[in-house]
Write a structure and sequence with these properties.
single chain; alpha/beta; Alpha-Beta Plaits; TIM Barrel; 2 domains; eight-stranded parallel beta barrel; elongated; binds phosphoenolpyruvate; binds manganese (II) ion
Length: 340
């Protein structure tokens, strides 16, 4: 951290800041210029609040150099992390991985139809909600454990890795036999109780970005999971709330290169929730792969017009197949590949 003192700050004020920083455990490196003093404070204090120093008399500015997250930071694993999943699936390697499926599992017939088609088109993961975090308590809430059973069976039949959302710590144990990846939804990104519980689970976590979360807050949520010992975290950019109303959310494509710089964790993009409209999903999916995403999370439905949730943003099979063909041209241009 660097503390820039005001021009003309008194020696007493400077010494007061130094004493403060020393009492917090920092080593101080002082640089005295013609009119201004700058203090370099070196130390490991992940919970430190820079505002405590900013408010001291004579301080102009405090600039934090190190990040408040450690395990999630790029410096922790400069080479990047590859999260290994069953069925030989890896996220974070050369291959761009596609997770596809309905917003919610609705019936055996529905999930089997969808699993068959997305697998044939090159998806390696099957998504489908069984516990749905719906904005309205009157909307379809998911099939619960029965949904998980159907999802798992479809995954087995079509050789797909299974991803489903966990909403509460109490659901974790019952989900473990059915899912390969536990998804934390946007609405739960800062459910620290849930994140801590997932930190001691031996299954990868797909951590979606909260709809009003900064990238730093998102990485701190990943840090919660990792600090419990579970380093298998995959991030997912799913759009944030902005003033724009043309799309359901604003898919923050720039978050992909930003995360790549700040963290070693792999990142997926979810243009389905990111746009909320199926006609906007393919362009944003193409953009996300071009921007360096390690994979995509896509909603696909056999009959989107009658889907029980998120039909408007779910792709028809033909749209999904065409998108996969396009991604196979884009991925090599950015040094990646995509399953045939
Ligand atoms: C979902 O993936 O169906 C979902 C509910 O996503 P999000 O948490 O990003 O809204
Ligand atoms: Mn959905």
């Amino acid at each position: 951290m660097v503390v820039v003192m005001q021009a003309g700050a008194s020696e007493e004020q400077i010494q007061n800041v130094i004493d403060h920083l020393v009492s917090l455990g920092f080593d101080i490196h002082r640089s005295t210029g013609v009119s201004q003093t700058v203090l370099g404070a070196v130390g490991v204090r992940p919970d430190f609040d820079p505002r405590d120093i900013e408010l001291l008399t004579g301080v102009r500015e405090v600039v934090r150099i190190t990040q408040p997250y450690k395990l999630a930071s790029r410096a922790f694993r400069p080479e990047g992390t590859i999260v290994k999943l069953p069925r030989g699936v890896c996220i974070g390697g050369a291959e761009v991985m596609v997770a596809a499926g309905p917003c919610a599992v609705e019936s055996a017939e529905q999930i089997n139809l969808i699993a068959a088609r997305v697998a044939r088109a090159g998806a390696r993961l099957l998504r489908g909600g069984a516990f749905k975090p719906r904005s309205s308590p009157y909307s379809f809430q998911g099939l619960g454990e029965q949904g998980l059973r159907l999802l798992r069976a479809a995954g087995e039949r079509y050789n797909l890795v299974v991803v489903s959302e966990v909403m509460d710590p109490s659901q974790i144990v019952s989900m473990l036999p059915y899912v390969d990846v536990l998804q934390v939804g946007a609405r739960n990104m800062q459910n620290y109780h849930l994140l801590r519980a997932l930190g001691v689970v031996d299954k990868p976590v797909l951590l979606k970005r909260g709809m009003s979360a900064t990238i730093e807050e998102w990485l701190l949520s990943a840090e919660y999971v990792m600090s419990g010992g579970n380093y298998n975290v995959v991030l997912c950019e799913r759009g944030i709330r902005t003033f724009e109303t043309s799309t359901r959310n604003t898919l923050d494509i720039a978050a992909i290169p930003v995360i790549k710089k700040l963290s070693h964790l792999p990142i997926l993009a979810d243009p389905s929730h990111g746009t909320g409209r199926r006609d906007k999903v393919a362009p944003m999916a193409r953009a996300a792969v071009a921007a360096g995403a390690d994979g995509l999370l896509l909603e696909v439905h056999n009959d989107p017009e009658h889907a029980l949730s998120d039909g408007a943003q779910s792709l028809h099979f033909e749209q999904f197949e065409q998108l996969m063909a396009e991604l196979r041209m884009i991925a090599p241009a950015v040094g990646r590949s995509i399953a045939a």
